[in-house]
Automatic annotation (TrEMBL):
Its EC number is 2.7.1.-. This is Phosphotransferase. It comes from the Eukaryota. It catalyses: D-fructose + ATP = D-fructose 6-phosphate + ADP + H(+); D-glucose + ATP = D-glucose 6-phosphate + ADP + H(+); a D-hexose + ATP = a D-hexose 6-phosphate + ADP + H(+). Keywords: ATP-binding, Glycolysis, Kinase, Nucleotide-binding, Transferase. Residues 16-117, 120-193 form the Hexokinase N-terminal domain. Belongs to the hexokinase family.
Length: 440
């Protein structure tokens, strides 16, 4: 009898291991991802190869990180994938102060003379977290929507012009859109105000993306060889050319197929908040079908798309062996009657999915820091990364797993991670400030 139970458990364990094995990446797997990212970066930067590269390496026209001499009042709009914010940012000698959410234009400007209004025109930086072909700091054609957006009549249009026209329609004449900034760039700039070594921006929120300072001589898509320019990598699309097919699991394919952009943003769909919960849900469905979970009881709620949110991963992974109550509370919400063993197994699934996401993100970053180190001809390099995004900030293990893997993949780089506070909006205002400083 005891042997029968033990045998059954051992068989179940083996089946779970086999099911999760494709999600568990080895160091050589990750080194290969790093090498592929590096290859795609080169293709994206090259004049001849750029058009067909999956990582688009878009020039941002931001050539300097802040130097502390920026001054003035700036507006910032921040359109992410989930949040939209309006900020008034005041940059003074003492530092930066911000009022966020809703900004009311002060009566002296609102009710003053038109001349006053022209004099007090506020420069505005617009954080726009979607891939754009920038032609300059204030001209950016939307290449494609991502992260579930599909608003009509925008793709191919100049987003700055659209914003200016919208402002005109609303008769908001006291603002001047001077810069469109990707959220990665905004985050880098925001952290760069406090740390001059911050030359990389990273987002792990609804979606994922990164930017970094590249040598102009390596940017084949923009004239000129002097200095550096920040490159918005658009790394979410890494793998759209099939180069990551070997790591996609059956679960990733199911998730991809159910999105409004199948086959697109393949790397993003392994890493970011919009998708991790869905990957876990697909695994749980398979486990239920194989009678590895809930004693095989049929569960209809688990078949509802997006029912298993990415924030559940955070709660579940936070709970230790003694406190599995949170897991059971979540499961009860989903009308799932979970045993102790079920809870432990679900935590294992969440851990596998979030660990893989953090490791893949690290492989991408390793490609970036190693390229920067080589660019500068250094044996070792110290650099800081400004990070924004709720998944990175709130998941209990994501940042540790990311940093640990990055150390293994890029041992010659000493990388510091800085959390951006109100990052991308503040950064957009700083880009506007730098642009006004330069008299652009
Ligand atoms: P955006 O990407 O729109 O700028 P955020 O950075 O706030 O917005 O990211 C939102 C994403 O973060 C959501 O898609 C959600 O999946 C994820 N998220 C929200 N709460 C948590 C949490 N507690 N733990 C992990 N991920 C979370
Ligand atoms: Mg954001």
């Amino acid at each position: 009898m005891v042997t029968a139970v033990a045998l059954r458990l051992a068989a179940q364990r083996q089946e779970v291991n086999e099911l999760l094995a494709p999600l568990r990446l080895t160091l050589p797997d990750l080194e290969k991802v790093q090498a592929l990212m590096r290859q795609e970066m080169e293709r994206g930067l090259g004049k001849a190869t750029h058009a067909n590269a999956s990582v688009r390496m878009l020039p941002s026209y931001v050539c300097n990180t802040p130097d502390g001499t920026e001054r003035g009042d700036f507006l910032a709009l921040d359109l992410g994938g989930t949040n939209f914010r309006v900020l008034l940012v005041r940059v003074t000698e003492e530092g930066i102060s911000m009022a966020s959410e809703i900004y009311v234009i002060p009566p002296p400007i609102m009710q003053g003379t038109g001349e006053n209004m022209m004099l007090q025109m506020l420069p505005l930086g617009f954080t726009f977290s979607f891939p754009c072909q920038q032609v300059g700091l204030d001209k950016a054609l939307l290449l494609t929507w991502t992260k579930g957006f599909s608003a009509s009549d925008c793709v191919g249009k100049d987003v700055v012009l659209l914003l200016r026209q919208a402002a005109e329609r609303k008769q908001h004449t006291a603002l001047k859109v001077v810069a469109l900034v990707n959220d990665t760039v905004g985050t880098m700039m925001s952290c760069g105000y406090d740390d001059p070594k911050c030359e990389i921006g990273l987002i792990v929120g609804t979606g994922t993306n990164a930017c970094y300072m590249e040598e102009m001589k390596n940017v084949g898509t923009v004239e000129g060889d002097q200095g550096r320019m920040c490159i918005n990598m658009e790394w979410g699309a890494f793998g759209d050319n099939g180069c990551l097919d070997h790591i996609f699991t059956q679960f990733d394919k199911l998730v991809d197929e159910s999105t409004i952009n199948p086959g697109k943003q393949r790397f993003e769909k392994l890493v970011s908040g919009m998708y991790l919960g869905e990957i876990v849900r697909q695994i749980l469905l398979e486990m239920t079908q194989r009678q590895l979970l809930f004693q095989g009881r049929h569960c209809t709620t688990l078949q509802t798309k997006n029912i298993f949110q990415t924030k559940f991963l955070s709660t579940i992974e936070l709970s230790n062996g003694l406190a599995l109550r949170q897991i059971r509370a979540i499961l009860q919400e989903l009308e799932l009657d979970a045993s102790f063993e079920d809870s432990v197994l679900m935590r294992e699934v969440c851990q596998a999915v979030s660990l893989r996401a953090a490791q893949l993100c690290a492989a991408g970053l390793a490609a970036v820091v190693e390229k920067m180190r080589e660019n500068r001809g250094l044996d070792t390099m110290s650099v800081s990364v400004g990070v924004d995004g709720t998944l990175y900030k709130l998941h209990p293990c994501f940042s540790q797993n990311l940093q640990k893997t990055l150390k293994e993949l890029a041992p010659n780089c000493n990388v510091t991670f800085l959390l951006s506070e109100d990052g991308s909006g503040k950064g957009a205002a700083l880009v506007a400030a730098v642009a006004t400083r330069a008299g652009l």
